Amino acid sequence: MDIFVIKGGVPLSGSCRASGAKNAVLPEMAAALLADGPVEIVGVPALRDISTFGKLLGILGAEVTRGPDATGRETLRIVPVPASTAEAPYDLVKTMRASVLVLGPLLARYGRARISLPGGCAIGARPIDQHLKGLELLGAKTSLAEGYIEATADRLTGAPVRFDVKTVTGTENLMMAATLAEGTTVLSNAAHEPEVCDLARLLRRMGADIEGDGTDEIVVRGVRSLRGTRHEVMADRIEAATLLVAGAITGGDVTVEGADPSRMGAVLDKLRESGAEVTGTPGGVRVTRTGPIRSVNVKTAPYPGFPTDMQAQFMAYMCLGDGFSIISETIFENRFMHVAELRRMGAQIDVSGNTAAVKGVPKLSGAPLMATDLRASASLVLAGLAASGTTEVLRIYHLDRGYDTLESKLRYLGADIARVKE
Ligand code: EPZ
Fold first, then answer.
1. What is the pLDDT of residue 84?
2. In which band, very low, low, confident or very high, does the pLDDT at 315 lie, cut at 50, 70 and 90?
3. Which of 190, 316, 329, 385 is the most exposed place for a label (fewest CB within 10 A)?
4. What spacing in Å lies between the alpha carbon of 24 and ligand 1's midpoint?
5. Does 16 participate in catalysis according to the annotation?
6. Nearest to residue 296, comparing CAs of 316, 323, 265?
7. Tell me, what DSSP letter sits at residue 304?
8. What is the largest CA-CA distance in the chain?
């Protein structure tokens, strides 16, 4: 297994480009199952989750190839064929919960699906009750047998669906299922995340009739079929925010090309509040920090609130704040795995329930650390960049799920970081 070796204390400077958004590509790959022709997704990052999802689509009968398009941009080409088996096997689903995203498309297109019920994961139980409730309201019959969800539907029928909680993939699953249902579906209390909107843009290009994405209420009018198309995926706002925090935590000057400030408001506001200077550039966002890090409070919330996927990274930054920072995680019940590792570097953090009290310290010291989940791994890398001495981050495969060659981007910005075989 690979590890990162980081020699901290180097202020990062320069500019790099954000990759395509993992959490937009995954639902868009599932959406390809709905099409009568090839779907091409342009600007796809090289991530483990994306290759895993490609394997899943292959098992479901689709042909998935990837490579540079005429302009050299990495492109996924998905040609759906009538599913030889509409089953997502446990050994795949257990490694990637996003597999549940094939449920809606398989039901809408083929009238049946057998998906391993995703187990919990490091950050929480992550049930899919809202996905199943919504699909049943559209007429699907679901049952659970041997750890698999079996779902069937002659033809889905549009219906009103109100989510009990804001769920990103729940909204995406139902939006996809509704595109081929008979009649109109209204999704209330829908998730507003930009990735939901990017998926809606793809579905409209395929011929779907969708309005209201990005608001609490999404209206989908069913159509008979959807066609293949070509779609350029949005930039990854979480990767971009992670790189900007890398600039701030090291007291550097970092520009991320392709970052869209209109989709990162909550994080950019907190960076400004912490004393960093945040400015828009013609094609991205620039962060510089010269003065002290001011401790600020953070509470995660559904979009457009502060994203839970940035909580761990921002906590690393607050470990070096000039006072107390209260960080509340309201989305997942166990997303503080980075705390124990940060403490090993000298951070002073007290956790009570879903709230962490971070008392800023003048410096962190490098140490050998263990990555546990995707965003916790990023948090440890950021802390290592700012710490004095050497930090080793083990189990980097967690990071490779959601960051495309992060060490290359950081090295390009001046970081002393290397990936070595353990
Ligand atoms: C998506 O996960 C993202 N993954 C996550 O990113 C992200 O952290 C999360 O949204 C929140 O923004 C993808 O888009 C592939 P949810 P998702 O359904 O859809 C509860 C990363 O780091 N809930 O919005 O699985 C759930 O337990 C990953 O890139 C139910 O109770 O999250 C959680 O507490 C991690 N029942 C809350 O809702 C359901 O049926 C939000 O979960 C569904 C969800």
1. 61
2. very high
3. 329
4. 13
5. no
6. 323
7. T
8. 63
| 363-396 pLDDT, tens digit each | 999 999 999 999 999 999 999 999 999 999 999 9
Between CA 262 and CA 278 the distance in angstroms is 13
Domain boundaries of the chain, sorted by first residue: 2-19+235-421, 22-223
The class level of CATH for 2-19+235-421 reads alpha beta
Stated length of the chain: 422
Q: Which of 19, 23, 96, 166 to mutate to test the pocket of ligand 1 (most atoms within 8 A of CB)?
A: 23
Task: Supply the DSSP symbol for 119.
Answer: -
pLDDT at 83: 62
Same fold, 2-19+235-421 and 22-223: yes
pLDDT digits (tens, 9 = 90+) for 137-166: 999 999 988 888 899 999 999 999 999 999
> Hey, whose CA ends up nearest to atom 28 of ligand 1?
309
Mutate to test the pocket of ligand 1, among 115, 126, 374 (most ligand atoms within 8 A of CB): 126
Q: What is the dihedral of CA 60, 61, 67, 72, to 10 degrees?
A: -90
Q: Contact 322/295 with Cβ under 8 angstroms?
A: yes
Helix (H, G, I), strand (E, B) or coil at 378: helix
Give yes or no for residue 422 having a pLDDT over 70.
Answer: yes
Whether residue 129 has its Cβ less than 6 Å from ligand 1: yes
Instruction: Find the 7 Cα to ligand 1 centroid distance in Å.
Output: 34
3 state SS of 168: helix
Pocket-testing residue among 128, 169, 236, 403, ligand 1, by greatest number of atoms within 8 A of Cβ: 169
Tell me, in angstroms, the distance from the centre of ligand 1 to residue 61's CA: 27
| Class level of CATH domain 22-223 | alpha beta
- Residue found by looking up tokens 């998905």 in the block: 78
Task: Classify strands 112-116 and 87-88 as parallel, antiparallel or unpaired.
Answer: parallel
Atom of ligand 1 nearest to the CA of 375: 22
